[in-house]
Specification:
The structure holds 2 protein chains of 2 kinds. Chain A is an alpha/beta fold. Chain A is built from 12 helices and 13 strands. Chain A folds into 2 domains: 257 residues, P-loop containing nucleotide triphosphate hydrolases (Rossmann fold, 3-Layer(aba) Sandwich), CATH 3.40.50.300; 73 residues, no CATH class. Chain A has a 9-stranded mixed beta sheet with strand order 1-12-13-11-10-4-9-8-7, with helices on both faces. Chain A has a 4-stranded antiparallel beta sheet with strand order 3-2-5-6. Chain B has 2 domains: 168 residues, P-loop containing nucleotide triphosphate hydrolases (Rossmann fold); 115 residues, P-loop containing nucleotide triphosphate hydrolases (Rossmann fold, 3-Layer(aba) Sandwich). In chain B, strands 6-7-8-3-9-10-12-11-13 form a 9-stranded mixed beta sheet, sandwiched between helices. In chain B, helix 3 packs across helix 5 and helix 7 runs parallel beside helix 8. The longest helix of chain B is centred in the middle third of the chain and has 18 residues. Classes of the chains: A alpha/beta, B alpha/beta. Chains A and B meet through helix 7, helix 8, helix 10 and helix 11 of A and helix 7, helix 8, helix 9 and helix 11 of B. Chain A: Belongs to the ABC transporter superfamily.
């Protein structure tokens, strides 16, 4: 690519206001369908512990993920990425909304049915050192999900553990080692083996490589890609590293204070980000090559930090840091606008009515 | 070149462990010129933090078996504890990696800043000084502290001055740490991954801020990071470190234009990029420090290693006027004075495969 991808000035594509984000992507038979999902944490105060307010950690989020694809969730710390991932798996129970995994409404299940459903949905955690029990051997760790779901005899399970270790490129001698004698990358590979042990359909990867060095990260990503192809897995990949998200996802959602501000196909979002927040995130990436520098939009520095989620700004939540903010932003939260066939962005700048007012200071 | 602020010569640091002596730093040479920002890049466990902590003298349990640390021409390792203590804080200062744990949670930001200003790194305070302090006005010091908070772009410095660390966000705390580190206007500042615990947007702000302040005060900075992208944005000179040795050193832009050492190339290739996919990474792991390989410490993970690599230590050689790499794939004069006589120890197994046959084996890093 010899030409810079971005011009010096931002252009905001006009778009149509939409109510239903899911309809934009029109996936036939998606593996995961999340509709209006919210997770609110109540705040209690006073002697009688009356609920005075709620932190809306995830607020009305909708998206679908086609089978065998990867959906990337990006955002700063405190944006609700992890809470969203955990709500989808019902590790925490969502407040509103529905989650359908392969046609089954997960949010309505309970008891035995939920336990059975969990076989299809697994998670890989962020910190490999604290997510493996230090007093169990690698074999016991990988075997546990199979035991819980009552899969196979002891012999078959041992066989399966060996297979899994081979898949994540670890020698079979590791079966009888303890996590303490493994390096960070090896531990995370054990975490991955444990997640795929029961043949899940959906795996939520919560920053699976943020605790690892780059040279190790590359190998872990490669293993994840192999497994995805092999078992037709659907991933939700949570990360704050945009370069990584660009390389692993098919579609991404940018979260800000629990709301999607931009969703779309990964290539189009990275080549021409529509929401000011996405632009700011992209322009903040440190790069190592000149080709990468062209990917970065013109500099857009954000003032301050993500606000306290208990005191969200009125109107658009991003208003307090947005360099493009103008009058309507304070009044009411903007709806999603569809800016082209594969993208939605939550910003008034896409509204025909404001096309001339906002966008740049020189107008 | 004549009068660098800091010069580390052939530094060796060892630790006694139950498994034997760990030779963590194995002959490091480092020069920080006045007003320059020098970066050390390497993965976790490569000895970056040990190096800077040795420079500051924060590792009493370490055995510095060999080497010199010359600061303004004076060997720090020969100074008494009290004298070194006086250098710390006043002349050299450090920004710690984790803003959550580097500030004392039970004192307000202001109290901690005033302490630094009042005592200026004194080792012991006599009773008379202490009593005198009780009757001294703090107004002037307070003004200086608030002024410094303002310089690090804190919007409400008075309020932050009175706050406890828990009341501040991560980015704020990192700014406070920077402010404390710069309070006494040190000549030399060590920054140990100050952006790692922060979000990308906050990190970008902090880097910019550090750049401005350093320029304004003409401070020399030694910047430690594992992120080559960050190092590229902030540094003038870059040192790549692997297993306690510096394997490549060059001015930052030169290094990114022509990375030479296979480790540097592997590292660059592993970084996920926007324009190109993720590379294969580097197989294997760091060698055991208690039993390091006799030859090149990277040989076991290196795709180009030959028998010579496992037998002879590759000393840094000057491959280009300002570029040195510690690899047998390159020919060149010894980079360091102490290797000047040992010309026989520089075998040449190159040329590097990616230069010899560009069409097939090129590892396209750029």
């Amino acid at each position: 690519m010899s030409q810079p991808l971005h011009t010096d000035r931002f252009e905001y594509a006009p778009g149509d206001q939409i109510q239903d984000e899911i309809a934009v992507f029109d996936d036939k038979d998606p593996l995961l369908r999340v509709e209006n999902l919210s997770k609110h944490f109540p705040i209690y105060e006073g002697i009688i512990k009356r609920q005075v307010a709620a932190v809306r950690a995830v607020d009305d989020v909708s998206f679908t993920v086609p089978r065998g694809q990867t959906f990337g969730l990006v955002g700063e710390s405190g944006s609700g990425k992890t809470t969203l991932g955990r709500s989808i798996l019902r590790i925490t129970d969502p407040t509103h909304g529905t989650v359908e995994v392969d046609g089954t409404d997960v949010t309505s299940l309970s008891g035995g049915a939920l336990k059975k459903q969990r076989k299809d949905m697994q998670m890989v955690f962020q910190d490999p050192s604290s997510s493996l029990n230090p007093r169990k051997t690698i074999k016991q760790i990988i075997e546990t999900p199979m035991k819980i779901h009552d899969i196979g005899s002891a012999g078959e399970r041992a066989q399966r553990v060996e297979e899994l270790l081979e898949m994540v490129d670890l020698p079979r001698e590791f079966m009888y080692k303890y996590p303490s004698s493994l390096s960070g990358g090896q531990k995370q590979r054990v975490g991955i083996a444990r997640a795929v042990a029961v043949n899940p359909k959906l795996v939520v990867l919560d920053e699976p490589t943020s605790a690892l060095d780059v040279s190790v990260q590359a190998r872990v990503i490669e293993i994840l890609n192999d497994l995805q192809k092999r078992f037709d897995l659907t991933y939700i990949f949570i990360s704050h590293d945009l370069s990584l998200i660009k390389n692993v996802s098919d579609r991404i959602g940018v979260l800000y204070l629990g709301r999607f501000v931009e969703t779309g196909d990964v290539d189009s979002v990275f080549q021409d980000p529509q929401h000011p927040y996405t632009r700011a995130l992209l322009s903040a990436i440190p790069t190592v090559t000149d080709e990468d520098r062209q990917y970065k939009p013109p500099e857009l520095t954000l003032e301050g930090e993500i606000p306290d989620p208990r005191e969200k700004p009125t109107g658009c939540a991003f208003r307090s840091r947005c360099p493009e903010a103008f009058e309507p932003c304070a009044e009411e939260e903007p709806a999603m606008y569809q800016t082209d066939s594969t993208r939605c962005s939550r910003c008034y700048l896409h509204d025909e009515a404001y096309q001339d007012t906002g966008g740049s200071d020189d107008q | 070149m004549s009068n660098p602020l800091l010069e580390v010569k052939d530094l060796h640091v060892e630790f006694d462990t139950y498994d034997g002596t760990a030779q963590v730093i194995n002959g490091i040479d480092l020069i920080v010129e006045r007003g320059e920002t020098v970066a050390i890049v390497g993965e976790s466990g490569c000895g970056k933090s040990v190096t800077v902590k040795t420079i500051l003298g924060l590792l009493p349990e370490a055995d510095i078996s060999q080497g010199e640390i010359l600061y303004k021409g004076e060997n720090l390792l020969e100074l008494s504890d009290a004298k070194r203590h006086a250098r710390r804080g006043k002349e050299m200062s450090m920004i710690m990696q984790n803003p959550m744990s580097a500030i004392n949670p039970v004192f307000t930001v202001g109290e901690q800043m005033l302490d630094v200003l009042k005592w200026q790194g004194q080792h012991r305070v006599g009773i008379t000084d202490w009593v005198r302090d009780k009757f001294r006005s703090e107004a002037e010091l307070r003004e200086r502290a608030i002024d410094m908070l303002e310089q690090v772009d804190i919007s409400a410095p008075e309020r932050v001055f009175e706050s406890y660390p828990v009341e501040l966000s991560g980015g704020m705390r990192q700014r406070v740490l920077i402010a404390i580190a710069l309070l006494l206007e040190p000549d030399f500042l060590i920054a140990d991954e100050p952006g790692t615990a922060l979000d990308v947007t906050t990190e970008a702000n902090i880097l910019e801020l550090l750049d401005d302040i350093v320029e304004e005060h003409d401070t020399s900075v030694l910047y430690i990071t594992h992120d080559l992208g960050v190092a590229r944005e902030i540094s003038d000179q870059l040192n790549v470190m692997y297993a306690g040795e510096i394997v490549e050193t060059a001015p930052t832009e030169t290094l990114f234009e022509d990375p030479q050492h296979p480790y540097t190339r592997g590292l660059l290739e592993s970084i996920p990029q926007l324009s190109r996919g993720i590379g294969a990474g580097i197989p294997g792991k760091l060698p055991d420090y208690t039993d390091p390989p006799t030859g090149c410490r990277f040989a076991d993970r290196c795709p180009h290693a030959e028998t010579e690599c496992r037998e002879v230590v590759p000393h840094l050689r000057r491959t280009e006027p300002e570029h040195a790499a510690a690899c047998h794939l390159f020919e060149g004069d010894p980079h360091l004075d102490r290797h000047q006589d040992a010309v026989t120890e520089f075998p040449y197994i190159g040329p590097p495969p990616w230069q010899a046959d560009t069409d097939e084996t090129e590892v396209d890093v750029r």
